[in-house]
Amino acid sequence: MTELAKKRPEFRNINIFHDVRTYRMPLAALVSILHRISGMIMFILLPFVIWMFDTSVSSEFSFARFTSAFAAGVGFVPGWLVKLVALALIWAYLHHLIAGLRHVWMDVSHSAVNKDFGRQSAAFTLVVSIALTLVLGAKLFGLY
């Protein structure tokens, strides 16, 4: 081996205290982590979803109470916070759905398991889930 030969890179485990701030994850890893976070958000907000469903379909009076919760709030919780929680739930559902379809497609089609498809489908997942969340969030906050 000559001295001019290029030294091979060494890959080591990431040190949580030093390397986390500078480590650059691939887009597919970010989508995978967000897929897990969105699932956790949906699970944690399940009582909120059940409350929304129950109050929206029980009676006309409960539906009026449901709509006023988004305008005036519930108890000590202001209406804008209720809307933000609903927006977080909307994002979690959309991201989890699109990322789940991405994973199903990768399970079904073996030709889709490569770096290029992983990068493109991760970008598609992020762009579509955020764009749909912005559109539905604009409707939720009364912008149209």
Radius of gyration: 22 Å
If you average the pLDDT, what whole number results?
A: 90
User: What is the total tally of β strands?
Assistant: 0
Strand content: under 5%
Distance between the first and last residues' Cα:
69 Å
What general form does the structure show? elongated
User: Helical residue percent?
Assistant: 55-70%
Please mark out the parts with pLDDT under 50 across 5 or more consecutive residues, or reply none.
none
Describe the biggest sheet? none
Our count of helices gives 5
Q: Encode the helix/strand succession as letters.
A: HHHHH
What structural class is derived from the secondary structure elements?
Answer: mainly alpha
Describe the structure.
This protein is 68% helix and 0% strand. The model has no long low-confidence stretch (mean pLDDT 90). The chain has helices spanning 27-44, 46-57, 60-71, 79-108, 115-140. It has 5 helices and no strands. The longest helix has 30 residues, at 79-108. It has 144 residues and is mostly helical. Helix 1 packs across helix 5 (115-140), helix 2 crosses helix 3 (60-71) and helix 4 (79-108) packs antiparallel against helix 5.
Please give the structural blueprint.
Blueprint: H1 27-44, H2 46-57, H3 60-71, H4 79-108, H5 115-140
Helix pairs in contact: 1-4, 1-5, 2-3, 3-4, 4-5
